[in-house]
Amino acid sequence: MNIKKILYSIFIVSSMLTMNSCINDLNTLPLNETDKTGDQAYDGTLESYEKGLAYIYGSFSLVSQNDPGSSDIAVPDAGQSDLMRQYMILNEASTDALKCIWGDSYMTGVQFNTWTASDNEAIIAVYTRCMVSVTRVNEFLVKTDGVSTEGVAQLRAEAKLLRAFAYYLLLDLYGNPPFATEENIAGPMPKQIGRAGLFAWIEGELKDLLSNESALPAVGDVIYPRVNKGVAQAILTRLYLNAEVYTGTARWEDAKAAAAATIAMNYSLCPNYEELFLQDNGENARSQKELIFSIAYDRDFTQNWGGTTHLASGSMYDNASQAVAEELGMPEGTLINRERWNGYHVSAEYVDNFELVGVDWKAKNGVGYNRALSDKRAFFYNVGHTKEFDKASTQSGWVCWKYTSRDSKGNLYSSDNFTKFSSIDFPVIRLAEMYMAYAEAQTRIDGGTTTDAKAMGYVKELRDRAGVDMPSSLNLDFLLKERAREFMWEGQRRTDLIRYGYFTAMSFPWPMKGNIPDGKVALDSWRTVYPIIQTEINENPNLVQNPGY
Q: What is the per-residue DSSP string for 393-427?
């Protein structure tokens, strides 16, 4: 059974349901005469409301209701308007984890930490997609208010959780965005409630959704990848882990308790780390058990040049792709990536976080290190490269093949209709993150070092899977490096560095930080949040721009 096909076939059908509301025009009519308003689309049946919910789910993974080359928001390149692609860029390329040789202005602005309040497609795309999601949820809640159709209460709860997640992204990335709820539909323009105020609202919303009275389904009660109470508990864990950044007050005990509650919700680690990032990770029962919250992509039904397509295609080039395929025992001439854009690179400084054996920058073949004896979470290649990252060179630093065109059965997607697109679901939150959150919270509670048995046990499970030894105790610097290894290119690095106080610090350099080659520079403190996009500031007199912009 193709679960993604079932979910997104609902979305495709729901293209007739046009909720054209944008954040500053919450009472508009469809632009096309053939489109239906919410009043026309809902007929009182559960199916019609399911289509409305699918429209909300689709806002996290699709760029339009047309073809993958068209965008429904004001970003010129449709692939660069995808939420998860640009969320990953904002959280990874702004740090030491991802470098890019493309000359796109949005990418150079982010990776050199020189972005401004206007004309950066990544900042615009993530902000706009999140606010569109919020608006779609708000309208859905208005249209379903008081509806007694059986099953609608659950749909409303799912919608509220998706709204809380969108607001969490806005809280983390933009600090103090406009705050809109159902009352703003055909009502006043939204105002800001402050970062601490938004934190409190998200916390309260998640707690309500986790209560016994909530209609939000428990883990296992709805098919993957629909959201459930495990997702709510996991987002709450993230919220508490970063509470000191968001509010000024640490919540380590709450983070530990929330992580423990999530861990207890019938999840389990995938025994093979690599399967979490293969083309069938959403259909593979082993990886599904670890994926708490994923954004689903499907090459046949939801084509997108963003999503995970950019991760599977963005890093490699022909020689590297062939060499990795040979390393994996595939036939000569095989390419493990259907497209090879050769833009994304990884600095040697970041790769140093991994426990690699036999690194050789003068190697003539292979992948540049001994994979069999190294950390199994490492997917790198450096043959023929210079060690120092060069923003103008296609062969500098390392390239990464964590995401490729393979599935868990060893197949390469090469003969189907949409061979260039990726079906990898983006792993927003995994059980491994809950393990690491618990360990970090306990370590901070214990003053920076711990030998707590449960915390040690969780980290040991991850390191056993990676095939590397376990230390005798945990400290914060080790845990940050472990997160770099476990969650590379999963959209967490910026948030981690900010929580640790390293993102703006001169004491934590990386290549091209602040547009300085060796990165030995302190960034302005206000760069820990991105700007509210300038068009919103111009159009809504209730909004105040973030400091520094």
A: -SSBSBEE-SS-SB-TTS-B--SSTTTTS--PPEE
Exposure on the CB side of residue 356, measured as CA atoms within 13 A: 24
- Sign of CA pseudo-dihedral 412, 417, 421, 423: negative
**Cα 387 from Cα 395, distance rounded (Å):** 9
Distances (CA, A) of 364 to 350, 361, 367, 385: 23, 9, 9, 10
Asked if 490 and 467 count as a contact pair (C-beta separation under 8 A), the reply is no
The string of pLDDT tens digits covering residues 60-95 is: 987 767 766 666 777 777 667 789 999 999 999 999
- What confidence category does residue 301 fall into, taking pLDDT thresholds of 50, 70 and 90? confident
Provide the token pair at 465.
């899977």
Q: Are residues 18 and 37 in contact, defined by beta-carbon separation less than 8 angstroms?
A: yes
Number of domains comprising the chain: 1
Average pLDDT over residues 500-511: 98
Q: Is 454 exposed, middle or buried (0-12, 13-18, 19+ CB in 10 A)?
A: middle
Is 364 a domain residue? yes
Residues 6+ apart with CB under 8 A from 155: 49, 50, 52, 53, 144
Residue 367 forms part of a structural domain: yes
Please give the backbone phi and psi of residue 345, each rounded to the nearest 5 degrees, phi first: -130, 165
Range of the domain at 371: 302-409
Is 459 a domain residue?
no
Nearest to 121 by CA among 165, 166, 73: 73
Residue located via tokens 């025009």: 25
pLDDT confidence of residue 86: 92
Cα separation, 393 vs 390, whole angstroms:
5
Q: Which of 156, 120, 164 is nearest to 140 (CA)?
A: 156
Residue-wise pLDDT tens digits, 400-427 = 999 999 999 988 875 555 578 899 999 9
Identify the bridge partners of residue 357 per DSSP, sorted by sequence position: 370
| Contact criterion met (CB below 8 Å) for 437 and 458 | no
Coarse DSSP helix, strand, coil percentages of the chain, rounded to the nearest 5 percent: 45, 5, 50
Does 517 sit behind a cis peptide bond, omega within 30 degrees of 0 on the bond before it? no
H or E, element range at 450: strand 449-450
Phi, psi of 169 (to 5 degrees): -60, -45
Instruction: Note the pLDDT tens digit of each residue in 191-242.
Output: 999 999 999 999 999 999 999 999 999 999 999 999 999 999 999 999 999 9
User: Does residue 369 form part of some domain?
Assistant: yes
